[in-house]
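Contributing new records

If you add data, match the layout below exactly. Sequence lines come first and carry their own label; structure lines follow with theirs. Keep one chain per record. Anything else will be rejected by the validation script.
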Amino acid sequence: MSLVDRYLRAIGEHDGELHTLTAEAAHVCNAPVALLGFLDGDRERVRVSVGWKVEELPLVSSFAARFADARDVVILPDASSAAGFAQHPFVAGAPNVRFIASAPLIDSSGAFIGALTVLDRSVHQLQPIHAQMLRLTGRHIVQVLQSRTHEEEVANLRESIEESEARFRDLFEQTDDLIMSIGIDGRVLHANQATLNALGATNEELSRIDIVRIVDSEERESFRRALQRVFLKAEPQRVETVFMGAGNRRITVEGALRPRIIDGRAVMARVVFRDVTDRQALRDRSRQRARCGARGGASENALPHECQSRDPDADERNHRDDRPAPRQPPQ
């Protein structure tokens, strides 16, 4: 969709607000005709007209096209004597336009999209205060259009997210993995049933809190940084962390926070966490055995509680206590 098409879509069939602004421009300039036109390829599409019923002008007859390079209001008291306008079909011939005042419509990106043009068959001047009012009216029209296109983009974004989330839920609802969608504010937008069971919470409860709050206190900062990088850089982040689940159970999980990118922005993070609590416990046990074996404190098959950490200082103290007391020298 072209830039002009986006703005044209933002204008209703009978747009009262833009009609009022266009009529106000004619009134300010004391002229009978005002056109709100947009350049679209080889034509000017007139979406609002006051005093002249016209919907489209070919490029050769377009007024907006003549102001495509303008960056401020253009005032022509007598267009028949103005270079570049004397041969305009509507100046050289019927309806014999003479006065032209136009405010170019330039959006926030600097793109020219059309013009608010006021016409009169009579020659006359425009006071500076009225030129300023025309300028401000043109700017206000651009602001209205940009606001509407932004609202449409937000609505489309929301619809896209909802459709995507529906497919996401259908595909992964039955898995045993912990699956979540996390918003840019850290709230859980959706979690599958396995997640709800593990955390002992409902989707509604999770949606009201920052996910960092259910992470073990020692792991929170690293998890928070990883989540921030997902949204700032729009890049996946692999994490291993510990959730505090139902009954205060520690759940060790690993997974990749993957950004959902729309229009170049990360709008949410999706993650499939795998519960590796048992694997982590086995890893910890192996490490404990290795430490015990190095100290000769337990056999290879010893359980963690059978391998007690020994304090070398305490061993030395106990060894000294077992020594016989030194003999006293003879008096």
